[in-house]
């Protein structure tokens, strides 16, 4: 899993930086009782088996690395097949970026891995869902593989060495894909296919959330608690009209922004307090929405005015593609 430059260990106190679009509601530091409650919260989460052990985490990392090696190998094979110059073939590269709950560091035991395969612009999308699909299918470690192309975000689903994987694909306007490719660079969205933009958005939103919270450790622990609560009440599902994983993450991230020094137990309490009073036509924003005029879908409240009284909107704000959820409900609880 890609590591963040921020602290992932126990909470660090005192953050002078302002996170989000408003000043904090409170910058109070945690007291002894808060630490005790957070330890109890952690013990409670452990009792429900939400944490993987080190061996399981290492297995996931190995699976992602093996898939990336296969993807890079396939890219070189495609270059040879397409008579791409040898110099370009040698440097074609290729990257696999985990995203979603695994990249956020809040996945549960046995959860699948969402991963984005990024290739050069001279490839065609159909090659990924035909040629690479066949290469994956031929691997002994791969079981239950299927390609689902006619969907909002086309995906290859498979089981690799016992781990469920959802692979999406995006081609960017580059001849080669370097190891240090920055997908948060908005220039990556220029002249890009809308399906590729949607695939890129999964990683970009996940990475952006991690960059917009004051303390990743506190965010992750609080989000694990909220996810467990939502799942046990059967409201963790965007397919059923509730919220999906990334939407819950955005809601928790906003609480982290307005209580930057709070630790997990306090964040969970504030989560329910804040959103029980939220005026839902107002979107939950982690940062200012920007439109880079790349001819991509852009959240516009004027265009959605007819749905406003039925809507809940959550925005990360990293680019013109925004995560939005519309719920035909007047209350979250």
Automatic annotation (TrEMBL):
<protein>
    <recommendedName>
        <fullName>polynucleotide adenylyltransferase</fullName>
        <ecNumber>2.7.7.19</ecNumber>
    </recommendedName>
</protein>
<keyword id="KW-0472">Membrane</keyword>
<dbReference type="GO" id="GO:0005634">
    <property type="term" value="C:nucleus"/>
</dbReference>
<feature type="binding site">
    <location>
        <position position="114"/>
    </location>
    <ligand>
        <name>Mg(2+) 1</name>
    </ligand>
</feature>
<feature type="binding site">
    <location>
        <begin position="99"/>
        <end position="101"/>
    </location>
    <ligand>
        <name>ATP</name>
    </ligand>
</feature>
<keyword id="KW-0808">Transferase</keyword>
<feature type="domain" description="Poly(A) polymerase nucleotidyltransferase">
    <location>
        <begin position="20"/>
        <end position="213"/>
    </location>
</feature>
<dbReference type="GO" id="GO:0005524">
    <property type="term" value="F:ATP binding"/>
</dbReference>
<feature type="binding site">
    <location>
        <begin position="112"/>
        <end position="114"/>
    </location>
    <ligand>
        <name>ATP</name>
    </ligand>
</feature>
<feature type="transmembrane region" description="Helical">
    <location>
        <begin position="261"/>
        <end position="280"/>
    </location>
</feature>
<feature type="binding site">
    <location>
        <position position="166"/>
    </location>
    <ligand>
        <name>ATP</name>
    </ligand>
</feature>
<dbReference type="Pfam" id="PF04928">
    <property type="entry name" value="PAP_central"/>
</dbReference>
<keyword id="KW-0547">Nucleotide-binding</keyword>
<keyword id="KW-0460">Magnesium</keyword>
<feature type="binding site">
    <location>
        <position position="112"/>
    </location>
    <ligand>
        <name>Mg(2+) 1</name>
    </ligand>
</feature>
<keyword id="KW-0539">Nucleus</keyword>
<keyword id="KW-0812">Transmembrane</keyword>
<comment type="similarity">
    <text>Belongs to the poly(A) polymerase family.</text>
</comment>
<feature type="binding site">
    <location>
        <position position="112"/>
    </location>
    <ligand>
        <name>Mg(2+) 2</name>
    </ligand>
</feature>
<dbReference type="Pfam" id="PF20750">
    <property type="entry name" value="PAP_NTPase"/>
</dbReference>
<dbReference type="InterPro" id="IPR048840">
    <property type="entry name" value="PolA_pol_NTPase"/>
</dbReference>
<dbReference type="InterPro" id="IPR043519">
    <property type="entry name" value="NT_sf"/>
</dbReference>
<dbReference type="InterPro" id="IPR007012">
    <property type="entry name" value="PolA_pol_cen_dom"/>
</dbReference>
<keyword id="KW-0067">ATP-binding</keyword>
<keyword id="KW-1133">Transmembrane helix</keyword>
<keyword id="KW-0479">Metal-binding</keyword>
<feature type="binding site">
    <location>
        <position position="227"/>
    </location>
    <ligand>
        <name>ATP</name>
    </ligand>
</feature>
<feature type="transmembrane region" description="Helical">
    <location>
        <begin position="235"/>
        <end position="255"/>
    </location>
</feature>
<keyword id="KW-0507">mRNA processing</keyword>
<dbReference type="GO" id="GO:1990817">
    <property type="term" value="F:poly(A) RNA polymerase activity"/>
</dbReference>
<feature type="binding site">
    <location>
        <position position="114"/>
    </location>
    <ligand>
        <name>Mg(2+) 2</name>
    </ligand>
</feature>
<feature type="binding site">
    <location>
        <position position="166"/>
    </location>
    <ligand>
        <name>Mg(2+) 2</name>
    </ligand>
</feature>
<feature type="binding site">
    <location>
        <position position="236"/>
    </location>
    <ligand>
        <name>ATP</name>
    </ligand>
</feature>
<feature type="domain" description="Poly(A) polymerase central">
    <location>
        <begin position="218"/>
        <end position="305"/>
    </location>
</feature>
<dbReference type="GO" id="GO:0046872">
    <property type="term" value="F:metal ion binding"/>
</dbReference>
<dbReference type="GO" id="GO:0006397">
    <property type="term" value="P:mRNA processing"/>
</dbReference>
<dbReference type="InterPro" id="IPR014492">
    <property type="entry name" value="PolyA_polymerase"/>
</dbReference>
